[in-house]
Specification:
- This protein is an alpha/beta fold and 135 residues long.
- It has a single domain, classed as NAD(P)-binding Rossmann-like Domain (Rossmann fold).
- 45% of the residues lie in helices and 20% in strands.
- The protein is built from 6 helices and 6 strands, in the order E-H-E-H-E-H-E-H-E-H-E-H.
- A 6-stranded parallel β-sheet has the order 3-2-1-4-5-6, with helices on both faces.
- Strand 2, helix 2 and strand 3 form a beta-alpha-beta unit.
- It starts with a strand and ends with a helix.
Length: 135
């Protein structure tokens, strides 16, 4: 059976993850409150939905437990990130990856037992330094 992923938040990080996973044949459900981003993602993901995920009632209508991986690409608004991570956890999503905006956000996500936490700017800074050192 093909792996399935739900991505909440279609900023630069979420959009790029959605595109790459879709290109590699993974079924992707993309969710964002910005219709323009949803329309953009709809051209390459399996399904794209425009919704405000801060309402738990709204998220309950999506069968999250069917997804192998849940990705939270919201790093700017900690409360939205927390709500999304909790919704994925409570729905029984097997593996959750979340973007953190800073070290405090990361600490909060660790307390929620998020499986993987990504700090994109920190990661890219390290990768840039490694590339310079290796060249």
């Amino acid at each position: 059976m093909k792996k399935q992923c739900v991505i909440i938040g279609l900023g630069i990080y979420g959009m790029n993850v959605a595109k790459k996973l879709s290109e590699e044949g993974m079924e992707v459900l993309a969710i964002d409150k910005n219709m323009k981003l949803v329309e953009k993602a709809s051209s390459f993901v399996t399904k794209a939905i425009c919704m405000d995920i801060t309402s738990i009632d709204t998220l309950e209508g999506i069968p999250m437990k069917d997804f192998d991986v849940g990705i939270v690409g919201v790093g700017e608004d900690v409360s939205v990130s927390i709500i999304a991570c909790l919704a994925l956890k409570e729905s029984g999503v097997e593996h959750i990856i979340a973007k953190a905006g800073d070290k405090l956000h990361k600490k909060i996500l660790q307390k929620l037992d998020v499986d993987e936490i990504v700090l994109p700017e920190e990661y890219m800074g390290i990768m840039t330094a490694k590339n310079i050192l290796e060249s």
